[in-house]
Amino acid sequence: MTVHQISVFLENKYGKLCEILALLGNENIHIVAATVADTSEYGILRLIVTEPEKAYSILKNNNVSANLTDVLAIATDSAAGSFAKTFTCFTQAGLSIEYMYCFSLNGRSILILRTNNREMAREVIRRHELDYICENDLINL
């Protein structure tokens, strides 16, 4: 029910994002989803990739500050209100969404999210029969 995500601490300098992406591309790591959150001094690049453990090793071996964490991936349709309906399940259970990002594929939206309580979030997914995506499924989309 979880997906490995790589979080990379980026200096807010010209070319740093390209440098990180080139490290992964040179090793044939495919990026499934990505987002960057930034401030004036640094950014956090969050990635879902085809081979997360290999990608993490590549980054660490190149002295890149990176973490490997688990996040949830939920599929929903892309109709208006679908995200709200999905997030209402978590809100009603008292869960906070720490962050989320998404991408669309073949008329479906894939929500990548992290909550303040992963075990409770898993129970919400089961109870509401939400369509979760496993890592192998996500990578093979």
Characterise the protein shown here.
The chain contains 5 helices and 7 strands, in the order E-H-E-E-H-E-H-E-E-H-E-H. The protein is of the alpha+beta class and 141 residues long. The longest helix is centred in the first third of the chain and has 11 residues, at 16-26. The model has no long low-confidence stretch (mean pLDDT 90).
Task: Describe how the helices and strands are arranged.
Elements: E1 2-11, H1 16-26, E2 31-38, E3 42-49, H2 52-61, E4 66-77, H3 82-92, E5 97-105, E6 108-115, H4 118-127, E7 131-132, H5 135-139
Antiparallel strand pairs: 1-3, 1-4, 2-3, 4-6, 4-7, 5-6
Key features of this structure:
40% strand; globular; 141 residues; seven-stranded antiparallel beta sheet; alpha+beta; 33% helix
Q: Number of helix segments?
A: 5
**SSE series:** EHEEHEHEEHEH
Determine Rg (CA atoms, Å).
Answer: 16 Å
From the N-terminal CA to the C-terminal CA, the straight-line distance is 16 Å
Number of strands: 7
Structural class: alpha+beta
Helix content: 25-40%
Binned strand content: 35-45%
Shape: globular
Q: How would a textbook summarize the main sheet?
A: 7 strands, antiparallel
Oligomeric state, counting identical vs distinct chains: single chain
User: What integer is the average pLDDT?
Assistant: 90
- Show unreliable segments: none
